[in-house]
Amino acid sequence: MSGTRPAWEEKPTPVGLAGKGAALTVMALVVLIPLWSVLVTSLSSRKTINDAGGMVMVPKGIDASAYVTIFSGGIVTRALWVSTLVTVAGTLVSLTLTVLAAYGLSRPGSVGHRTLLFFFLLTFLIYPGLVPSYLVVTGVGLKDSLWALILPSAISVFNLVVVRGFFQGLPNELLDSARIDGAGEFRILWRIVLPLSRPVVAVVGLFYAVGYWNVWFSALLYIDSNDKFPIQRILQSMILQGQSPSFSGQSVGSLPPTQAIKMAVVVVTVAPIVLIYPFIQRHFVKGVIVGAIKG
């Protein structure tokens, strides 16, 4: 009977298990070794970096002067505050709009929901392009404004479809009983639907937060003032263009090694998402899979 089952239902052989373990180990090392090198380099002294010829793999003492420098004021500290503001405000705006739109489109009796859903899904096939988007953003007066980093990407249609599918999977009897008790749609959404939808809301919120935290191309297009640059824009100018950021109260000669500062900025840029993900991970699979297959 075992020969009639599909191959993926068979018990793995010892060789197969060893091969999977080796493949996973190699993939993990490919990811972790560069991260380790970045972290160690950011905590290395000038002599250690010079001896290693750039990136450091083996730590020789800890020198946190690069972190002290980037948090002591200047353009990097300001960029971190800008990125934090954009991420928090953008995630709240995007989650609010996505949840409201998804709830309305998930109710079969809502007015014009099929037409509206068609226009939302149409954006999967037709994208306006860079030039029209730039003209719209500048035409409505968002140029050199932090709102230019939030409003053009306030709703992701993919996230909208996932949340809508999750809402469609909720029992209609539960919502109907709330209506019989006199609850309005907003009260039903706030008191019943959202508490039951925490997994998908958490996952979609993570998607939005990562997108806003990593924004740099929109900043490259729409932001002209240095004091409004997000951290990704600063990182791009440091790594790719080789520009050194300014730090308040410190001369160039007293600064830590440039390589250590660059790697410290990389660590600070990556760390928030790495720290947040474990708290969302338990909702991740359930939120995406259930939301994607319903409806």
Automatic annotation (TrEMBL):
The keyword DNA-binding does not apply. It is found in: Cell membrane. Its main location: membrane. SUPFAM superfamilies: MetI-like. The chain crosses the membrane at residues 22-43, 87-105, 117-140, 146-167, 260-280. InterPro entries: MetI-like, MetI-like_sf. Keywords: Cell membrane, Membrane, Transmembrane, Transmembrane helix, Transport. It comes from the Bacteria. It is a multi-pass membrane protein. The keyword Transmembrane applies. Residues 80-276 form the ABC transmembrane type-1 domain. PROSITE patterns: ABC_TM1 (PS50928). Belongs to the binding-protein-dependent transport system permease family. This is Carbohydrate ABC transporter permease. It comes from Phytohabitans maris. The lineage of its organism: Bacteria, Bacillati, Actinomycetota, Actinomycetes, Micromonosporales.
